[in-house]
Write a structure and sequence with these properties.
Pfam families: NTP_transf_5 (PF14907). This protein is of the alpha+beta class. The chain is about 55% helix and about 5% strand. The protein has three domains: about 90-220, Beta Polymerase, domain 2, CATH 3.30.460; about 220-350, no CATH class; about 355-390.
Amino acid sequence: MEKIQLDIASIPNELNVILQILRNQNSYSPIPTRTLSSFHWKSFIKQAKHHRVFPVLYKKIKDVDQFIVPKEIIQEFEIEYRQNTFMMLKLSAEIDLINRLFSEEAIKILFLKGPVIAHDLYGDISLRTSSDLDFLIQIKDLQRAEKILMEMGYIKNDYIKSVLNDWKWRHHHFTFYHPQKRIKLEIHWRLNPGPNAEQSFNELWKRKRNSNLTNTNVFYLGKEDLFVFLISHGSRHGWSRLRWLLDIHYLLHKDIDWNLVKHLLRKYQLTHIAGQALLLSNSLLHTKYPHEIKFLVNKRRSRKLAQDAIFYLERMVNLHTEPLPDEVASYHSRHLFSLKSMNQKLLFIISLLFPFSEDAETLPLPKRMHFLYFPLRPFLCAWRRARKHV
């Protein structure tokens, strides 16, 4: 299989070493002496934590000669590894509880990430990190689900501002936090933010799988839907963490119906996104991809998008830390737009004509008159720009 070469000359030396270790799936691969000459172990740890790959790295380097990897580095990784293992066990117990409570109320629930896919892809929940739980339900069940979570002690983060119910398609999840358990969870009614089309809940439910993570029937995405979800999620975050590519790497070892995947990619206009993911995984992790999807990596657009994503690795970008530096914010905005197909770009531009919550803040109107924000929106936008300029 052809190995794709992307220009990664500017990524940090420490990240290069991490990639070398991750590429060898069975054991630790020696680091060339010339690589270590300009190597900083503190940066190595920082990169490993940022990219959320320290559990896998620890398993590979823990038995390595201490003269190659300093003893204190392995000890720090061991502490992080143990803490992550406890966290994943705690999240697994919470999955079991939430799943049971939702089932009692006849609410269908699909778990998206966390311990469920760690168990599925890595074979060991301790080898993948997760800071929260993500699950998908039908939008009609949202109120009942919120009531259950609040009775459990979760507090809703009401950060979403909405007008004319645009939250239903502009956004895709609400966030909850349990102050005693210190667990954050995201309750999804869509896999990704709108306005793009995606698989319906009923489609996903028909192809669901049953995880044996717990003793109850915990359902999660079928392999094909998981692939589509992971590539769309990773691309939306610029593949700024290696963990997302590592998920793709392990998922490609599974027996997947690639004809169904190709159908889904074409239907939802994601072929170039899949190509980007495969190119990055192949170039950085030496992932082998099946012959059936080789055509995806041959697309010129996919290669450009893959190379564009290297920007995030060069700068160790954390998109969850706001405010973002101006250079990163500007680049990310352009990159997100470049990920869209022509139809998606057109739909996105049209969606900008739909009123935003900022319009209601600029000119508060009674709810029965919110329809007026449609003709008023251009003027309200111009007014905000003028005030900002002043």
